[in-house]
Amino acid sequence: MQRAGRHGRQPPEGGPLENGVGQEPGTPEPPPAEAPAAPRAPRARPRLVFHTQLAHGSHTGRIEGFTNVKELYAKIAEVFDISPTEILFCTLNTHKVDMQKLLGGQIGLEDFIFAHVRGETKEVEVTKTEDALGLTITDNGAGYAFIKRIKEGSIINRLQTVCVGDSIEAINDHTIVGCRHYEVARMLRELPRAQPFTLRLVQPKKAFDMIGQRTRSSKSPSEGRVATGKETLRLRTQGPPVLEEGPSPSEEEAARRVDDLLESYMGIRDSELASTMVEAAKGSPGVAQLARGLDSVLGEFAFPPEFVAEVWAAVCHPKEGQE
Q: Which segments constitute the PDZ domain (predicted)?
């Protein structure tokens, strides 16, 4: 028995119902409609898996699926069952507090990630007898500013309890967690001379073989860069991460020069910020255009005009012997 079509009608002989209308007997078959071209399948993104440990000692974990530094910290914290706020910073391929191996915005595809977590808290009283304390500040991209360098012979250098890698948690009991490195550097510069102030510091938890070490970083052409000439994962503040080739030697050298300028003008070191400024300078025909470009994307830094001019000159017209 033939089943009824829609509205109880039987499909007429000669063809099935289409939209309730059957093909009349003897009517030639209509030509088949061209099938639409199948959409091109999107290019599959490679599955990137990284290995990680806690710097003071732990089992090895595997992380993937992060798009920025905060998500990276959250993934590491999940593996080791800790809070993301416990992580002060990460180094690549070494468990030591090595400021030349800091994780920035780029990770080599074969890099091993070591997470340095909160250790002991300490307070130190400082008297500012000079304008400069001798500190260089950087931050982890997730709310913690920490000491990247201590200048030999400086005020801070004379305080043995202060070490490279210490996170600055408060200045005179005013918390600075969540502040960027340039904000912390500005606060320290603006403190009055001859008036004591207190720093509350958190040192990274140390493994047994690291106890007692007081590391100072030295300038290095490779500072902040771990993978050169290899494919790297570049993390971005906004948007998905991208795979790209590591920087060329000339780009690394230009970024180092700009990083040196950041330290001399602002008391900070930030290899990713330096790389961003190098890219902007290369695309600017002159200082005025670079100033407008930097102001549109990095306006919160309020770079002085003389600094912008030096950045443009360092990238586009390096002095003889700089390259």
A: 123-190
Q: Are 79 and 63 in contact (CB under 8 A)?
A: yes
Query: Which amino acid, residue 210?
Result: M
Model pTM above 0.90: no
Q: What is the pLDDT of residues 117-127, one digit of tens each?
A: 999 999 999 99
Write out the H or E segment, with its range, that includes residue 244: strand 242-245
d(CA 53, CA 116): 9
Phi-psi sector, 176: left (phi>0), alpha (psi -120 to 50), beta: alpha
CA distance 133 to 128: 7
Angle at 69 between CA 307 and CA 61, to 5 degrees: 145
C-alpha separations of 238 from 89, 103, 130, 165, 235 in Å = 20, 18, 40, 27, 9
What φ, ψ does residue 45 adopt, rounded to 5°? Answer: -80, 135
Residues, the chain: 323
Please give the share of the chain, as a percent, with pLDDT higher than 90: 48
Distance CA 114, CA 96 (A): 9
Distance CA 150, CA 126 (A): 14
pLDDT at 5: 42
Higher pLDDT, 15 or 316: 316
The residue whose two tokens read 């106890």 is: 211
Strands 113-127 and 87-92: antiparallel
Neighbour-count burial of 265, counting CB atoms closer than 10 A to its CB (0-12 exposed, 13-18 middle, 19+ buried): middle
CA distance readout (Å), 156 to 16, 58, 127: 89, 32, 10
Identify the sign of the CA torsion 79, 85, 89, 95.
negative
pLDDT of 185 above 80: yes
